[in-house]
Amino acid sequence: MYCDVAIVGGGASGLALAVLLSRRTKLDICVIEGGARLGKKLAASGNGQGNVSNLHISQNNYYGGGAARGYAIIARRTEAYKELFHGLFSCDERGRIYPAGRQASSLSDSLIAELARSKVKTLTGVRAEKIIKKGLFTIFLSDGERIEARITVLCVGGKAQKQFGTDGSSYALAQSFGHKLTPLFPSLVQLKTDTTFIKTLRGIRADCGITAVVDGREVKKSRGDVIFTEYGISGNAVFSVSPAFAGHNGDVVISFAPEFTEEQLRDDIISKQSLGYGAGEVLALTLNNQIGRAIVKRAASSDAEIIAHTAKNFVLPVYGTLGFDYAQVTRGGIDMNDVTDELESRLCGGLFFAGEVLDIDGDCGGYNLSWAFASAERVAQAIAERTDDKADR
């Protein structure tokens, strides 16, 4: 089978690219997806609500060797989602942008339906096992078939969440053309910590402030849910600071009462002590009782100032993260030194990349979908500019 553009990977970036190309050109497009369904990870994004972007997007939200160049692409396309999707969007108090219906599956359904209307070829349940270029690209599929294409775009994702079909095996397609792979780490993931003082908190969820400390330096802060587990901590605040621990150990410092100062806590504790409250009760009403008792035990003192300080600065050594199966994204990927600003390979003309396959990842909160959509738009622009086969406007 022949097509003008073969898109390997039917996730967020692959679907977005196919839709944009179908609107802007008359090129024959084919999307190849190894999983049984297109857009499976997109349909589960944002805890099923479809967090497409963030109002507060900045370069500080991105990591990896390609962060600066990737953000330069994103900065020009912060509302790429509006071009892709026809509908209304809403924003929450943290700047996270969602479809007004708060249904992630509606995002993937919308893109898939448009591809069907545009007669874009889609192949599911078949993997691209090998790609060579001799004039045209030849893509060898797992079912024994072949596809020939003038342009190939790798939108194959990373190594995180293999239940969505991204197990890291597709990096080899880029490596076969000489591209280098940077070290890979799980990111936006649960943290393994010392559990000595939190064993009694297993299963408890609390609104906390959390600070990541690496090499004695505060590198990232967040506030939100912290969930205590048998291995350490989880929750959205933990995911937000977890990029600091991609390949690094360190400490997290938890503030169990982020809305109160140490002085306010101290005075409240002193007041309760004067009324005869026991050691395990001095943080009652202010905090969950089990959390309060864990803080007092950790403080190992009845001094109100020490207890208050411990409540605001509860240190947990971080020994690592859970693995790729639990991570939302991959830190690392195809080295962007061998990729142009149009996201085309410097080593093989006509080979492009979009999305998580590249060495750029973002914070929790819509930043990774922002990159998926912006990178897809950049590639669509580059391909459309070099073809005379434009769509009628």
Total tally of structural domains:
2
Number of helical elements: 10
Fraction of residues in helix: 25-40%
Distance between the termini: 29 Å
Strand content: 25-35%
In the CATH hierarchy, the third-tier topology of the largest domain is known as: FAD/NAD(P)-binding domain
Taking the sheet with the most strands, its summary is: 7 strands, mixed
| Fourth-level CATH superfamily of the largest domain | FAD/NAD(P)-binding domain
Oligomer state of the chains in this structure: single chain
Organism: Candidatus Coproplasma excrementigallinarum
Keywords: FAD, Flavoprotein
Pfam families: HI0933_like, HI0933_like_1st
Protein name: Aminoacetone oxidase family FAD-binding enzyme
What labels would you give this structure?
seven-stranded mixed sheet; 393 residues; alpha+beta; FAD/NAD(P)-binding domain; 26% helix; 20 strands; 10 helices; six-stranded antiparallel beta barrel; elongated; 26% strand
